[in-house]
Amino acid sequence: MDCFADKILIDKSGERSRAQDVLGNKLTYILLFASSKCKGIEELLDTLKTVYNESFKHRCGFEVILISSEKTQADFDFFFQTMNGPWYALPFEEETALQSHAIEIRGRFAITYIPYIIVLKPDGTLVSKDAIKDLMTLGINVIVAWTD
């Protein structure tokens, strides 16, 4: 998907990988736009982790990517390390950077508030632009909705 072309993702250990290497065999991308300061973020992360773990058992090919709105590297590091999912993230960049990848991706999908989740196929096809509602109404059954 071209919104991740030439992008780097990091894992919890801080290891940096090319996005195309991380996402190459995935069937569904779950983009999580969030900050540690979002109201209800812990509950949302718990629900997302349950869905992710269940999808992993069934080899659904989901990958969650955090696009953080933290304002400092320290806040980003704390939030990413305390998230309870084995996910990837765009590395922290100062919001003042003219080419911030997080700003670019938020703009591409017209994200105006957080938390927000969108679900995409690798070719960029939008599966759900209201994925938080999907999670809250369908629970674990969202796997079926996001894989069809």
UniProtKB/TrEMBL annotation:
Name of the top EC class for this enzyme: oxidoreductase
Known catalytic reactions: [protein]-dithiol + NAD(+) = [protein]-disulfide + NADH + H(+); [protein]-dithiol + NADP(+) = [protein]-disulfide + NADPH + H(+)
InterPro entries attached to this UniProt entry: Nucleoredoxin-like (IPR052259), Thioredoxin-like_fold (IPR012336), Thioredoxin-like_sf (IPR036249)
Protein keywords: NAD, Oxidoreductase, Repeat
SUPFAM superfamilies with a match to the protein in the record: Thioredoxin-like (SSF52833)
Sequence ranges assigned to domain Thioredoxin-like fold in this UniProt record: 29-125
GO MF terms, alphabetically ordered: protein-disulfide reductase [NAD(P)H] activity
E.C. designation(s): 1.8.1.8
Protein name: protein-disulfide reductase
